[in-house]
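Throughout our pipeline, every protein is held as a single compact record rather than as scattered files. Nothing more is needed to write down the fold, since each code stands for a local backbone conformation. The record that follows is passed on verbatim for readers who wish to inspect the format.
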Amino acid sequence: MGILSRLFGKTEARSATSASYAEAFGISPTASGAYVSPRLAENLATVAACVSAISSAMASLPAYVYRAAERGRTELPGHPVARIIRHPNTRQTWPDLIEWIMAQALLHGNAVCVVEYDGAGRPTALLPIPWNNVQVSLLPSGRLAYDVAHFSAPWGGPGLSRRYLEGEVFHLRDRSDDGLLGRSRISRAPEVLGIAIAANNAVSKLYSGGLRAQGFIEAPVFLTEAQRKDVDNWLGKIREAMQHGRLPMLEGGFKFGNASISPEDAELLASRRFSVEELCRLFQVPPPIVQDLSHGTFTNSREAGRWFAQFTLSPWARKIEAEFSRSVFGVNSADCTLELDMSGLMRADAEARWQSHKIAVEAGILDPDEIRDIEGWNPRPAGKQPVEGEGA
């Protein structure tokens, strides 16, 4: 049995089609003729922008560890998980790790990190593992086992494999079909991406032809085989001239017939705009967030930002918090939780931030010194009162 047979489980390597080879590597064929995979999907600017918008926004959220108290909760900056937030591993910062986790979950449907522990069983680090390096098995006990092939070099081949059990792995899933593994949005709607990729390919071919009309050459008489060979060489020079913007000359009674259609006639541009909207729907990202302002105004773009926070980011934040409670805190910290502070999204919106502070002070929820602490300022000196109209 050859290596292809062992890789793809075929009894004979030559009996497998190229499509089955592609599917074995997560590349799906579509009706449009384009192949779709996470790597190919990111060639589309809209997919890359949606993934970047969600992952970078999630990475910008402050994270805190709390323990439930009799009345309310207490922040635990010295908790082992709080130390992971400050320093998750030797190669990444916390924003880097969250950005990576979100990109993996959006493109592959799953994001896996190995949880490292010290001798006392306290978590000390989260090590990111690319989804392509993970093989998940369901054990007879009903638990999942993760066979991880660690990379021996950044872009080299995989090293030795090691098995981890559920309690040793942080596993963030996109919506699952079986409750075990997440399924990527790319695999749920390959035709949407296939059409967008095919449209991109069509535009690429149009530009590679120098945006010149494509058509046919009409000969005055039937040609012999020898004449056909001469004409083929001659047509090559004609195509080269057209690609460089030079005006070709037709001799011997030959005529050029235009058999092409313009981008407007083919509605390529309209199709690509529609693909942007379709891909935004797939990732639940409002078009203005990825710089599609064709229907945007200042007002609805601002509302799109709120919609993005409420319906796109908030569910992912809850998923991450719940997965930390399941896999990272463990039984020794069952009363502890991770919180991703969504108010961090207002960091760049000073007007909205200070308006919310004003409401909190007027309602008696916070006092001015608490507001100053939130903003990173020291408390007012003892005895100094705010000047009328100065606020906090």
Summary: The radius of gyration is 29 Å. Residues 1-22 have pLDDT under 50 and may be disordered. DSSP finds 14 helices and 13 strands in the chain. Residues 350-392 form one domain.
